[in-house]
Amino acid sequence: MTRARAAVLRDSPGRLEIEEIDIDLPDSKEVLVRTVASGLCHSDLHFIEGKYTPQLPLVVGHEVAGVVEAVGSDVDYVKPGDHVVGCLSVFCGECAYCVTGRPYLCRSISVKRAPGSKPRLSSGGVELHQNGQLGGFAEMLLVHEHAIVRIDPEMPLDRAALLGCGTITGVGAVFNTAKVTPGATVAVIGCGGVGLNVVQGAVIAGASRVIAVDLLASKLELARRFGATETVDASQVNAVDAVREITDGGVEFAFEAIGLKTTAEQAFEMLARGGTATVIGLIPAGERVSLLASDLWVAEKRLQGSSMGSNRFRYDIPRLVDLYLGGRLNLDDLISARITLDEVNDGFSRLKAGAVARSVIEFDGC
Predict the structure, then answer these.
(1) CATH second-level architecture of 2-150+331-362?
(2) With contact defined as beta carbons under 8 Å apart, do 234 and 215 qualify?
(3) How far apart are CA 364 and CA 147, in angstroms?
(4) Is 303 exposed, middle or buried (0-12, 13-18, 19+ CB in 10 A)?
(5) Which of 52, 98, 101, 152 has the most CB atoms lying inside 10 A of its own CB?
């Protein structure tokens, strides 16, 4: 048993409390990781604000990187000292989704401890749940080995943390879900952390035009730094009309990276005939998206979701590391602020205000 500081959500909506928690020793197939860096993601904010109902009490955070401290029995993938990135697309490797190449859809409970077992995390004898089976806002992680990927130790861990959610979600949606082709036209609605990764993913894929759409001029300026060829200020013009005018009829691929019913509908409306709109953002539970039916069958437009960039993270994340180390993937400019664990609530306030791409909590040793 070890003790560590963590950000715990006890009420939803609520506020994160910094507490000392108990972390059990790693059991079979489990890995204990010393956290080095953890990013603040908008999906964490959804739990904090009560837009999605989590199991409480909850250690929040899932965009995380660190160093392996210890391993349990039957673990042969990593060893102490390895650098790793966590990803909430935890996979069992045996279910129908895993064996057909879609591990990001796996929901098997076999990667959790059995009911009635001693919990991985606890406080005062009460089990603490882990966001995404990770719980990244903590000084230590205890996770199933299928929740992590080993990476090149040359990769800076503060930037590596971003790969496990924001980057794999955005770039993966381009590469894996939509399969953007060289020369294609692309529109991206929302230029926060995920949207910026969609922008640079489209650039890497060879898109001829990448149109960034946002309400904030500062984010549009940042999108140009990530490779956007044109920008649309949706606070000043009708975004759909502007994109269709720029492209003389619409784009081949549109991406919604905010998580709103309205912007999902706009992404579909921006498409040219035969185009594909991909919704990445977490639209609040219970919302319904309305489409013009004739566009589905006459214009053959498509609307699809993307879960974590349809990732195979043990394959995709090392490739992203190589792209970063080779100077082709920009992670440095994604980090708008570096904060401590004690500043996590202020970090989410800035995120809600739209003032940052990503804030990263730096732990000791970063």
Answers:
(1) Alpha-Beta Complex (3.90)
(2) yes
(3) 22
(4) buried
(5) 98
Amino acid making up residue 123: S
Q: Provide the CB-side half-sphere exposure for 10 (13 A, CA).
A: 7
**Single-letter code of the amino acid located at 45:** L
Chain position carrying tokens 């999902």: 264
In tens digits, what is the pLDDT along the chain, a chain of 366 residues?
899 999 999 999 999 999 999 999 999 999 999 999 999 998 899 899 988 888 999 999 999 999 999 999 999 999 999 999 999 999 999 999 999 999 999 999 999 999 899 999 999 999 999 999 999 999 999 999 999 999 999 999 999 999 999 999 999 999 999 999 999 999 999 999 999 999 999 999 999 999 999 999 999 999 999 999 999 999 999 999 999 999 999 999 999 999 999 999 999 999 999 999 999 998 887 889 999 888 888 899 999 999 999 999 999 999 999 999 999 999 999 999 999 999 999 999 998 887 677 899 999 755
CA-angle at 355, arms to 350 and 360, nearest 5°: 60
Residue with tokens 């506020």: 15
Q: CB within 8 A of 120, min separation 6: which ones? A: 23, 24, 30, 113, 130, 142, 143
Task: Tally DSSP H helices, then E strands, for the chain.
Answer: 11, 19
Task: Please list the residue range(s) of the chain that carry CATH number 3.90.180.10.
Answer: 2-150+331-362
Supply 239's token pair: 């975004």
3-state DSSP assignment of residue 356: coil
Query: In CATH, which of 3.20.20.140, 3.40.50.720, 2.40.290.10, 3.10.450.50 is domain 170-306?
Result: 3.40.50.720
- Phi then psi for 306, rounded to 5 degrees? -140, 115
CATH 3.40.50.720 positions along the chain are: 170-306
144 and 111 Cβ atoms separated by less than 8 Å: yes
Q: Nearest-5° angle of CA 222, CA 322, CA 67?
A: 95
CA atoms of 46 and 54, how far apart (whole Å): 10
